[in-house]
Amino acid sequence: MESLPVHAQVVRLPDGTYTYVDQASLPVQQAAPQVVHQHIHQAPPDRTVQRIALGSGVGAGAVAAGVYFGPLLVGVLTAIAANLAMLAFLAAVMAWAVVSVVKSVGGTDGKAATKRLGRKGR
């Protein structure tokens, strides 16, 4: 039996027979250099609140509703606060107007009434 080359490999020929092929005698195909595509992006958006909500058992619909209705709620509360501030300002102006009218029109009784009101507030 003849000795096989060190780098021998069994190959099946098209007619169905097997033969040994010496790897060293085959032409060596050089692999093309591998190109690495590296994409550099900005940091992804922070989804911590959604992850915490989903992790605690809240469904995705509730998270989406919170994302949608959250800013609306802030807007509504801001509008309510602005309305209350306007009403408080109007109440202060009307109180000042009443006190000024009572002082000027009421004579001595009006001046005494405004002094009594001033002393009660202290």
Give a short overview.
By secondary structure, this protein is mainly alpha-helical.
Radius of gyration: 45 Å
Order of helices and strands: EEHHH
Low-confidence stretches: none
Strand portion, in percent?
A: 5-15%
Our count of helices gives 3
Q: What is the distance, rounded to the nearest whole angstrom, between the alpha carbons of the first and last residues?
A: 124 Å
**Biggest β-sheet: strands ordered side by side in the sheet:** 1-2
Mean pLDDT: 76
Shape descriptor reads rod-shaped
Approximate helicity band: 55-70%
Oligomeric state of the chains present here: single chain
Q: Major β-sheet, in short?
A: 2 strands, antiparallel
Structural class: mainly alpha
Number of DSSP strands? 2
Keywords:
single chain, 122 residues, mainly alpha, two-stranded antiparallel ribbon, 3 helices, 57% helix, rod-shaped
Polypeptide structure, described:
By secondary structure, the chain is mainly alpha-helical. The chain is 57% helix and 8% strand. The chain has three helices and two strands; from the N terminus they run E-E-H-H-H. Helix 2 (60-105) crosses helix 3 (107-121).
